[in-house]
Amino acid sequence: MTPGGSLICFTGIDGSGKTTQAKLLVDWLTSQGVKAIYTWSRGEVLAIRRIFLSVGRRALGTSTRQIAIDQSSYREYQSRKSTLMRKPFIRTLWSAMTYFEHLVQINTDIRRRMQEGCVVVCDRYQWDTLIDLAVWNHKDSAWLLNGFNRFMWQFIPKPSITFLVDIPPEEAMRRKDDIPSLDYVQKRTDHYQYLAKRDAWRVIDGCREIAAIHGEIISTVEAFLEGQGKHD
Q: What CA–CA distance (Å, rounded) separates 80 from 60?
């Protein structure tokens, strides 16, 4: 069974377990003889972006290394970043860089792998980037579907399956201690649920045991692979 050139995405708030499930899916696909690869689609892949982030973090009183190893530094960084993002010029610059960078990453990494016949299992995707921007720019869920954001989808592959691994905001706060606030994660949850309902994503209850979640995902992916085989 070889459905080459497919894209399966995992999305959801921090702490939902999507990274674990994405990697488990790649392992399972590989065991079934399917050419599959895991990728993390979150940006920070361009040299200019990494330099910008490094300089910006130092200006905010921390460093990339500090926020990676010290949770208190990370929380302080997020608080200062939130304050800085209130400035319209900074928000516009950040948004433009984020759009450009993600388009480059998708088309040089994910699209290339699909063209090679891989099933690309993507940890986060375009919707996650847009939700980041919506939260930082204080936009409602309808903003995610505005004309410009819909236009951008013409330049990137469409996922064959999108899994939303869903957990309550309170559970996310319990699992991770680097989330800025309950309000922050609640806004993200609302955006994800809005899109999941609109686009009929596969919503997975992320509060269950890892094995149970994995089993439900495999059932969905197996049906997809069988459908692909029928059309080969």
A: 7
